[in-house]
Write a structure and sequence with these properties.
- The protein has about 80 residues and is mainly α.
- About 70% of the residues lie in helices and about 0% in strands.
- The protein has helices spanning about 10-20, 30-50, 60-85.
């Protein structure tokens, strides 16, 4: 199977770091390890959710669930950003 970079979790991890303005070169070893582990754990949980639950839904319902989950993530980061300001 040919691997597409967009589906490579290391590639996605690097995109994530860029989005949240983190650089591994500036992290301590503990932060680097914990950040990578948290990212991979979240990916694993989402992949299991997609495989086991969402794949069984009708397309329209799945799209609504995706939109709601995206909104939850957005809301979380907006709240977190406000708490840091």
């Amino acid at each position: 199977m040919m691997k597409n970079n967009i589906f490579d979790l290391e590639y996605q991890y690097q995109l994530y770091l860029s989005r949240v303005k983190l650089k591994e070169t500036l992290m301590g070893p503990g932060q680097k390890k914990e950040t990578r582990q948290a990212f991979m754990a979240a990916c694993g949980q989402m992949l299991l959710l997609l495989r086991d639950e969402i794949s069984e839904m009708e397309e329209e319902q799945a799209a609504e669930i995706f939109q709601d989950m995206l909104q939850q993530v957005h809301d979380y980061f907006m709240k977190a950003a406000n708490n840091f300001s």
